[in-house]
Amino acid sequence: MHLLIITGFLGSGKTTLTMQLAAECLRQGRKAAILVNEIGEIGIDSQLLRELDYNVWEMVNGCICCTIAADFIPTLQKLSEEYTVDLVLLEPSGAAEPGSILRNLRYYKGPLESVYIVTLLDPLRLAELYEVVTPLITKQIAEANLILITKSDVAAAEQIRQARHIAAEINPGTEPVEISLRQKLDEAILKEILPWQNWN
Amino acid sequence: MTVEELYNQRLQRIKTAMDLGTPDRIPIHLGGPSFIRYAEPEATLSDYVLRPKWADDAVFRSYKMLPEIDTAPMLGGNNEGMGAMWYAKVKLPGRELPKDTLWQIVEVGPMTEDDYDTIINKGWSALGKELLDRLGYTEEQLTPDFAYMAEINKKVREELGLVTMSGGAYVMPVEILSAARSLKKFLRDLYRMPEKVLEAMEVIAEEYIESGTKMIREQKPLSVFLGHGRFGDDLFNVKNFEKFTWQFTKKIADAFIAAGTKALFHMDGKWDSYLSYWRDFPKGTCIFDPDSLTDIVKIQEVLGGHMCVTGDVPPAILELGTPEDNYNYARKLIELFGKSGFIMSSGCSVPPHAPLENIKAVIAATLEG
Questions:
Q1: Which residue from A96, B107, B192, B225 has the fewest beta carbons nearer than 10 Å?
Q2: Distance between CA atoms of B292 and B313, rounded to whole angstroms?
Q3: Domain architecture of chain B: domains with CATH
Q4: Where are the domains of chain A?
Q5: CA distance to partner chain B, nearest, from residue A20 (Å)
Q6: Which one-letter DSSP state was computed for residue A152?
């Protein structure tokens, strides 16, 4: 079982990317489970997704501190023990930094072949978010294995340049990729993200 | 020992700890939804929220099994109220969710940009009622059963001899506005119209101070609960922390302390970088109540001996660790803080599936002194 964490602030396209990746897993004959946390946004319609045969687990947002430990780890445990899942797509709250999730993974007692973090940056709002919630954006970028700059079809060149600049300052080792989630994901990105294609 | 004597012993123990003194033993403050299960192992979280009176009875019986706990349980749940307090909707186990999952607060942001002016001109309370209307809550859903509340509070004191730590809860202006407006829109407001937001926060703070000081003078609670959640050092930089959080935290707490109580800072989230600000309060006037995300060693270094600290067995260990893990963590806390100015507690509430053995392990570690 592999774990893919999709982070990014509210409205950056996490749910859309999650859905595209889940569909791609299905197309490739792999089984994906989706774990979502709905803090601050109306999330995935889990009932609809269940009807479409995806496995969706909603995590709780009653309390930030208890949520990840109390729901994420037991759910991961359950997925590992009771389901044959190739990939767990974890969409935490937009206000979560991946580090807090990784810290709680020490309580997980099942097999986990890999953990990969994709961070989505919304170039239309990144500059103002970086100004207001600097530590959060910094951590989301710093901890990413892959940075995707979304909305490249509607963002101005200056906004993209600014997003690249912020990303490069924080995580110089990771070259951001521009995408539009209105279009089908590029094969090269899928190869990068989906574990059985590229991960070590 | 009579229940009244037991109550007085516990009260003295807690007051001594809050005053940074050395009580006869470290007080134990543990509570949360898991307590329904210790007396009723088959109970689910849907029982907790959809059968609140039955759940309260089960929680009472659980506390009787654990007489070392000194403080009152969380009781009298109003299931719609859990969403309404955040100006949000709520999904409940056994209603919208599977029976044994935790409830979800669904943030919808009923507050508009123009509502900042409503707060400034008409006050926060007036808008608050309007927001609940917009969310479709009815007065009937949200009005507590006062007779029942009085009855269970009496039972907590007179049958169990348990002490209520805080008498009144206030969620800081930055937190409540971010929930009412929704986090996404609120952060945009902070960037685009910060002065308007600050003006509204000022109104909220003044209303809190007016109602809080009145309540403190009438009811004389041991402390007043001041809720902080999302805006720790993992979200706000220092400039925004000072501007949007700290100045109001300080102002409200100062007023409450001056009115004759202690300020209990319930600190969900991570606050490592900003701990030194809390040293601005006079020694022995506050309680710092972290949820395990802030580094407890750093809390002791910065605030130990200056204010009482509750701490902080992590929900992850309580729910997923072994009794030995819990015992060891609790012992580590006691070694760190010693016996003065410290209350043994979970980081935030005890999570819903924490085994009884883990609670017993924390208690055993505390009783060793």
A1: B192
A2: 7
A3: 3-34+111-367 (3.20.20.210)
A4: 2-198
A5: 23
A6: T
Residue A25: which H helix or E strand, with range?
helix A14-27
In this predicted structure, the answer to whether residue A49 has a pLDDT above a threshold of 60 is no
A100 in contact with B, Cβ within 8 Å: yes
CA pair distance B308, B299, nearest whole angstrom: 11
pLDDT at A47 over 80: no
CA distances from A104 to A66, A71, B135, B276, B319 (A): 11, 11, 35, 27, 12
Provide the whole-model pTM. 0.90
Size of interface A-B (CB pairs under 8 A): 121
Q: What ipTM was predicted for this assembly?
A: 0.78
Q: Which CATH number fits domain A2-198: 3.30.420.40, 3.40.50.300, 1.10.10.10, 3.90.550.10?
A: 3.40.50.300
Q: Is residue A139 less than 8 Å (CB to CB) from chain B? A: yes
Distance (Å, rounded) from C-alpha A180 to C-alpha B205?
43
Give pLDDT, residue B55: 94
Q: Which residues pair with A37 in a beta bridge?
A: A59
pLDDT digits (tens, 9 = 90+) for B300-326: 999 999 999 998 998 888 988 899 999
Helix axes B115-122, B124-134, angle to 10 degrees: 140
Kindly report the number of other CB atoms within 10 A of residue B301's CB atom: 12
Helix (H) or strand (E) holding A148: strand A146-149
Q: Which residues of B touch A (CB under 8 A)?
A: 82, 97, 101-108, 182-184, 187-188, 190-192, 229-230, 233-237, 240, 268-269, 291-293, 314-317, 319-321, 347-349, 351-353
Which three-class secondary structure string do you get for chain B?
CCHHHHHHHHHHHHHHHHCCCCCCCCCEECCCCCHHHHHCCCCCHHHHHHCHHHHHHHHHHHHHHCCCCCECCCCCCCHHHHHHCCCCEEECECCCECCCCCCEEECCCCCCCCHHHHHHHHCHHHHHHHHHHHCCCCHHHHCCCHHHHHHHHHHHHHCCCCECCCCCEEECHHHHHHHHHCHHHHHHHHHHCHHHHHHHHHHHHHHHHHHHHHHHHHHCCCEEEEEECCCCCCCCCHHHHHHHHHHHHHHHHHHHHHCCCEEEEEECCCCHHHHHHHHHCCCCCEEEEECCCCCHHHHHHHHCCCCEEEEEECHHHHHHCCHHHHHHHHHHHHHHHCCCCEEEEECCCCCCCCCHHHHHHHHHHHHCC
Question: Out of B104, B183, B230, whose CB is closest to A62?
Answer: B104
Q: Which of A72, A62, A104, A42 is nearest to B48 (CA)?
A: A62
Task: From chain B, pick out residues whose CB is under 8 angstroms from the CB of A134.
Answer: 236-237
What's residue A39's pLDDT? 41
Angle B318-B324-B328 from CA coordinates, rounded to 5°:
85
For residue B142, the model assigns a pLDDT of 86
Q: How many whole angstroms separate alpha carbon B40 and alpha carbon B58?
A: 6
Residues sharing a CB contact under 8 Å with residue B184, sequence separation 6 or more, in sequence order:
A9, A10, A11, A40, A41, A94, B109
Instruction: Provide the pLDDT for residue B288.
Output: 98
Contact B135, B110 (CB under 8 A): yes
